[in-house]
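Appendix B: complex inputs.
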Amino acid sequence: MLTIGTHTFTSRLLLGTGKFTDLQIQNQAVEASGTEVLTFAVRRLNLDQVNEPNFLEMLDLKKYKLLPNTAGAKTAEEAIRIARLAKASGLCDMIKVEVIGDDTLLLPDPLETVKACEVLLAEGFIVLPYISDDYMLAKRLQQLGVHAIMPGASPIGSGKGILNPSALQWIIDQATVPVIVDAGIRSPKDAAYAMELGADAVLLNSAVSGATNPVQMATAMKLGVEAGRLGREAGMIPVREYAVASSPAEGMITT
Amino acid sequence: MELIINGNRKYVEPEYNTVSKLLESLSLGQKTVIVEHNQQILQKEEHPHIALADKDILEIVHFVGGG
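Resulting structure:
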């Protein structure tokens, strides 16, 4: 079971809801992924298109917990405002703190992220900061009392997969709260690898919504996460420099 | 009265003088929207009780797809 704050989940795959081109396919992909947590962004409503269908309205909110993000925020103040707006919906108490500091790499600004987390924790949010794979930052945020750490595998939407497995491993090994590997995931092997490293969960979006067949990719990611987790728990053999024969050395047939 | 909604000026009949009535007039009564009124974020239960006046500034936001 994955526990984040007061919430408990069976699935270890969190799914983003961005950039799906078809609401029916999105619905099927969400179903196929087995996820119980969906991320959303908060944006101004277009008053000229109030009847445009909204994915949230299609969802059975008894089945899913919402994890709104603060995407679009470049400062702690902006992130805090978005978080408060999200909470005022009455639909959620978790917040993915995402304060972007650079438009090219979309990397999170660590100083603003810490500031935002401090305020939101004091206001009673369940706080999940999106961070770079920075060991010390993860530690400091944990000390602040955040409810999960979400280090990026590689830049958002880049599909570069896990760039620095050692950095993720270090974060995971010291963690006292769930570590959710977020961003940059492309293929099921990336999801499996994150789980093999010991991550508690994986959050991805573009990998599914941008796939040629999003529903099939959602299934693949679900299986990837499960395979990685099972493999980790099963206990992997040590890595050795040289070969170790798997067939017996005795009873060789000689001439 | 004139309101600033999501950064745009909008003329609204004076009868729509609460947040609830405004949302109804914009066909948003049944939608999941969050309203900020003069920089004050409102809980849904507050909507019927918040009176609107000329030049008030409102943000009406909602959840959209995002990662």
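Chain A is about 35% helix and 15% strand.
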